[in-house]
Backbone:
């Protein structure tokens, strides 16, 4: 049975472009490795990837959203979200829930719009000239793109960590409590307590507790990134947005950040963009695969990596495509 | 054979070019040394404690000192900076941080660049027409030359320099610092004053010091505004002395003792500029160690 289902797979995946629930059955096929190797020879023809082909033609095929992810309580709800940079459309009708209290990763080749989507959540794209959006992104039911939304207070509810560590040119202490300072907190005891708590959660306290007044510029790259995480969680954000947080770090620092993400994921909802598939597999509960501004497949990380419903996803996560 | 000929030609050409470059550098350095040496030769012999502490006596054989002019220059530069630095820095922030249409910032930047290059005598006449004459009319007094008018002219020179250097320095602060701050819910103003400006502090301070050095050495803008004075005054509402004006008066006058004072004045002015430049270097070096992104 497994082998025959494998043979009929390509036509099966072309047909149900509009009806994702229908594909439940092919997902029961056998483990990936053998399937993938069977497809190697044919993959160069291109006909193996009907969804990608359709996207390249400019279409927006209905993504395969697994039932397992559609039912979860969502803290963020992206609905038919579109974004243009001037004339260029960067995001095409993205719809996906982000599970509350879980770690969700977004993967995809460079330029697929994953960072753009992340930066749309806290409206950081507003800073770019000529950005237009349509559709909605709701944080706890409130559309962040609704008229009259206070972007400043929205951003205070979200934490963000960037690709390159970007500690501010001030002391370690002032970096961590920056978000409190700009909200007008002056009480020294409150600031110190918040600083210690955030640094402990970011697994940095023991390394810097004796030099909190020292410049943050003196820390190593990995320490700087953990400092940025501490800075992002000091106000206990509802969602923590991580934009390829390890791409500028060495492997050991990367490992430490990944451990930290897993730990922080116990307390916060985390949305992480990564170009590193292993990282997505290691840290996240749910994974979304994007391509050229479209959501392609979205499900539990284990399913995306071991039982993907599309050959495209399967070949992407195994490094054969993209 | 032809290869070795080419080789010889290449080497000869290289030596000639090296010689020309080295010669140019040597020429510049020797001219500089000549000027400084001559200055020291004449200036130091005229420099005395009296020069720094006494005021002009009116006696051409024993003309006294330049205390009034030294004080005058310091006060003029301080007054001009008090006006020019805030306006210049704020204008620089506007040019760099507020993304308005190019239709606004483009011409603004162009005007700032043109203003930087305006001959200082023009600024002097502008100060005369726009400050001295109207104030005279308003107070119905005789021509009201004043330290304020001089400081205004100097500030006018200072503003475009400070604005453009501030803009350039702020642009060097990486974009991800601004994004990091905004993503934490900071307003644009909080981002600028808490993150961007401190990040560019060394560069901005250097620009300010450079502008201060430039205006401390200006004479032309003061000729029709501060006018100069032989009295020790700390009241900028009166005609006001400055080192450059006093040097000009003495150096172009007929009395040898006053000419000697002019040389000493030049030495003091250069020493002041040297101190300013040295502090710029120190700030820049400190800045290089703590700069963002470094």
Residues:
């Amino acid at each position: 049975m497994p082998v025959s289902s494998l043979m009929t797979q390509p036509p099966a995946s072309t047909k149900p472009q509009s009806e994702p629930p229908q594909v439940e059955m092919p997902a029961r096929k056998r483990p990936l490795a053998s399937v993938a190797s069977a497809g190697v020879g044919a993959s160069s023809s291109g006909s193996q990837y009907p969804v990608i082909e359709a996207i390249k033609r400019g279409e927006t095929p209905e993504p395969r959203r697994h039932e397992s992810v559609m039912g979860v309580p969502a803290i963020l709800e992206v609905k038919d979200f579109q974004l243009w940079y001037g004339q260029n459309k960067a995001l095409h009708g993205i719809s996906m829930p982000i599970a509350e209290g879980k770690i969700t990763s977004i993967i995809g080749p460079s330029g697929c719009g994953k960072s753009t989507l992340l930066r749309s959540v806290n409206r950081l794209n507003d800073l770019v000239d000529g950005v237009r959006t349509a559709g909605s992104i709701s944080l706890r039911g409130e559309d962040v793109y609704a008229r009259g939304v206070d972007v400043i207070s929205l951003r205070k509810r979200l934490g963000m960590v960037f690709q390159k560590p970007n500690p501010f040119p001030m002391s370690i202490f002032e970096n961590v409590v920056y978000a409190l300072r700009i909200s007008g907190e002056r009480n020294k005891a409150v600031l110190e307590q918040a600083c210690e708590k955030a640094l402990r959660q970011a697994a940095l306290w023991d390394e810097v507790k004796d030099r909190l007044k020292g410049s943050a510029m003196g820390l190593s790259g990995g320490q700087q990134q953990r400092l940025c995480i501490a800075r992002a969680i000091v106000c206990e954000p509802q969602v923590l947005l991580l934009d390829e947080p390890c791409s500028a770090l060495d492997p050991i620092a990367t490992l430490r950040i990944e451990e930290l993400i897993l730990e922080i994921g116990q307390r916060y909802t985390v949305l992480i963009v990564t170009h590193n598939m292993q990282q997505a597999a290691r840290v996240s509960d749910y994974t979304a695969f994007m391509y050229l501004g479209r959501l392609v497949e979205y499900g539990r990380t284990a399913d995306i990596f071991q039982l993907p419903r599309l050959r495209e996803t399967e070949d992407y996560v195994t490094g054969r495509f993209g | 054979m032809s290869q070795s000929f080419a080789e010889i030609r290449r080497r000869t050409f290289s030596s000639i070019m090296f010689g020309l470059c080295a010669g140019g550098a040597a020429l510049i350095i020797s001219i500089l040394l000549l000027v400084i040496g001559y200055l020291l030769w004449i200036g130091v012999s005229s420099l005395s404690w009296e020069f720094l502490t006494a005021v002009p006596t009116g006696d051409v054989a024993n003309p006294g000192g330049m205390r009034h002019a030294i004080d005058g220059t310091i006060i003029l530069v301080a007054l001009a900076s008090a006006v020019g630095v805030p306006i210049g820095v704020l204008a620089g922030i506007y040019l760099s941080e507020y993304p308005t249409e190019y239709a606004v910032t483009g011409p603004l930047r162009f005007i700032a660049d043109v203003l930087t290059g305006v001959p200082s005598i023009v600024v002097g006449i502008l100060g005369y027409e726009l400050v001295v004459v109207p104030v005279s009319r308003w107070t119905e007094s005789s021509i009201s030359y004043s330290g304020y008018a001089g400081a205004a002219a100097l500030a006018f020179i200072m503003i475009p320099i400070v604005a453009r250097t501030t803009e350039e320095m702020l642009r060097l602060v990486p974009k991800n610092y601004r994004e990091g701050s905004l993503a934490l819910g900071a307003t644009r103003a909080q981002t600028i004053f808490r993150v961007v400006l401190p990040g560019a502090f060394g560069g901005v301070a250097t620009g300010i010091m450079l502008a201060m050095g430039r205006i401390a050495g200006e004479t032309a803008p003061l000729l029709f505004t501060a006018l100069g004075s032989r009295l020790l005054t700390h009241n900028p509402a009166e005609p006001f002395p400055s080192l450059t004006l006093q040097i000009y008066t003495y150096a172009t006058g007929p009395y040898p003792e006053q000419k000697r004072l002019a040389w000493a004045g030049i030495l003091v002015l250069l020493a002041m500029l040297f101190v300013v430049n040295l502090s710029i270097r120190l700030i820049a070096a400190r800045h290089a160690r703590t700069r963002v992104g470094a």
Observations:
- The interface with chain B takes residues 122, 124, 127, 129, 152-156, 158-160, 162-164, 166, 168-170, 178-179, 181-183, 215, 217, 228, 231-232, 235, 241 of chain A (CB under 8 Å).
- The radius of gyration of chain A is 21 Å.
